[in-house]
Write a structure and sequence with these properties.
The complex is a heterodimer of chains A (about 450) and B (about 290). Chain A is mainly alpha-helical. Chain A is about 70% helix and about 0% strand. Chain B is built from 14 helices and no strands. Classes of the chains: A mainly alpha (about 450), B mainly alpha (about 290).
Amino acid sequence: MIEDRITVKNALINGDLLTKLSAVVMGAGIAGHKQIIKGAVVLLLEIAFWIFMISQGFHNLSMLPSLGTEVQGKVWNEAKQIYEYAAGDNSQQILLFGVITCFVVAGFIGLWVLQLLHSYKLQKEMKKGEAIPNLRQDVKNLLDGNLHITLMTLPCIGILVFNIVPLVYMITMAFTTYSKEDEHLVLFDWDGVHQFMRVLNMNGNIGRQFWHVLAWTIVWAIFATFLNYILGMILAMIINRKDTRFKGFWRFCFVLSIAVPQFVSLMIMNIMLQPSGAVNVLLKNLGLISESIPFWTNAMLARVTIIVINLWVGIPYTMLQVTGILQNIPEDLYEAAKMDGAGPATIFFKITLPYMLFVTTPYLIASFVGNINNFNIIYLLSGGGPTYVGDTAGQTDLLVTWLYKLTIDQQYYNLGAVIGIMTFVILTIITLTTYRNSSSYKNEEAFM
Amino acid sequence: MEKQREENGRSPRKRIVNILVHVFLAVLAVIWVMPIFWIVLTSFRAEPGAYTSTFLPKAYTLNNYVKLLTDRNVLNFPRMFKNTLIIAICSCCISTSFVLSVSYSLSRMRFKFRKPYMNIAMILGLFPGFMTMIAQYFILKAMGLTEGSSIRFGLIIVYSACTGLGFQISKGFFDTIPRAIDEAAIIDGATQWQIFTKITMPLSKPIVIYTIMTSFIAPWVDFIFAKVLCRANADQFTVAIGLWNMLQKEYIYQWYTCFAAGAVLISLPIAILFLYLQRFYVEGMSGAVKG
């Protein structure tokens, strides 16, 4: 009964006249099978699509291969005695509208397939003598069995328009010459993978900086994630100890630091650690140092400082997250270990840590990803500095902050996009290998 | 007898350990609270400037708060506050409904697009936020939402449009509500919409409050999106950009103590909200992990 399956091919071969007609006049099949309003809406969408394509769409697509050629010109206007600017092509807009048009076309093809399948389905239902749901029943179903369509349409549109389209647009930018270098800010052209080669080439200036930044990003993410995780867990365990008094008070002290908005506390930290900031003043007044400690101007010290401050930011978070989970660890495991004469360190590394790792792998990955993309802490603390002369990336810049500098400060949009893609590739490799193997992903439905 | 004493934590060794643990916690607590304590002190400091030669202020005053709330010429804090409040209220409504809708659908409904959606959400989360932000700026510009008072709409869109991707914590919470309740309601003739609004929502008050609060707080604490979108439009600044500006070279001497005052004013309500919300956060978290 293969021909019974509802596919595009079957609809075009076995469909009745109306179904076949709807390959050209969309919605005809639906309207012809008693769902007139639905069919009319589909037809209207098709008309709107063709109007858009003829008025703009085809033009947008035709400009994509060249990205525009007209240079902005200055023309002397004799009558007004001024130079008039003749608008040239703006490649950035051409690219944007081109990408949007591609999405519209893809959406149209999707609609075409859907309406064709729907028409074929209706045709078969009618043949079998089943009742065709009318509009009222369809609407009613949107609040019941099809509630997910009602609930998820708007969020999905939001994600499509303000996340997926921008991403695709940005990705295409990586393959162009859109950059302040060589004055390609208004008019630019396709450039193939040239920028990728530049970034990956270890001998070039940009490539050298890339590998440098990448190494620090990974070192940072590993330190930030695992130090926070382990130290936060130890702190939670110390507070959870049976003999610890004033548990609520201790928790309050630590949680207070995350209750303050992060950008505020980070800016305060930055000021406190300046050469004449509060920390240096305090240490000098106590007579511990005579010269200010160069927290932000020494590359190595800046890195250590950032990791330490991140402990200040992150440990309370971990503490909050793991407190509940820690209490889920079966008590008899500990009892058994104690019987066998295991010390606190052995118990932690042989029982607590493996259990926690097993349960919280997705969160560990999420926080690793979050740390690689941790913009605030670097930007607000060190600003990526110290920066050597001739470099665009500072010694503490992560890939994200370098991306920011390249695009917002330098306007090297294509390089910025390449860095973004590289970040994504690295994260994908790390995440997919770990996440798909984690128990929480595999057993997502387990307890339902 | 010996055993009894040990259990009460009175054996000398245990006692020393206990004292050490409490001293250790006290030292840590001081380290954690000190920056906050210092900024509160600074907000009452009479001498201007970011850097002083003493750790504690020499004289105290309330003028920093007065200046912050009344000076409308240089950095108009009251207007920034108004801007942020409007943006926060609007984006809070949109984000909350988005997040709850998506999480409910993913937790309770079964449809073809479900797994792909969760995978797509995960993949999108791997791209650095900036990459989208720059392109979002171009798109908003093409829509004409980057000039004058329409920046506000731009910011609302930026803060709320993609929140459908942040469903994890509330989905985790919905997952913990027994399905048997839904099934009983279906037998009684309830539609999915009725289950969503009349059963799941009332049962999920903690996570609803958590979602509302976190999305309300977001515009107050984000400064980088706002900075890129507002650029030099000073009348559209949000609180976060204002505070950030106070620390720039041209303002820092005059405005540093006001910055501290502003930081305290903004942090106080957020801190209270957060302290109140943390148990919902913990519940959502451990709910999500149980799977």
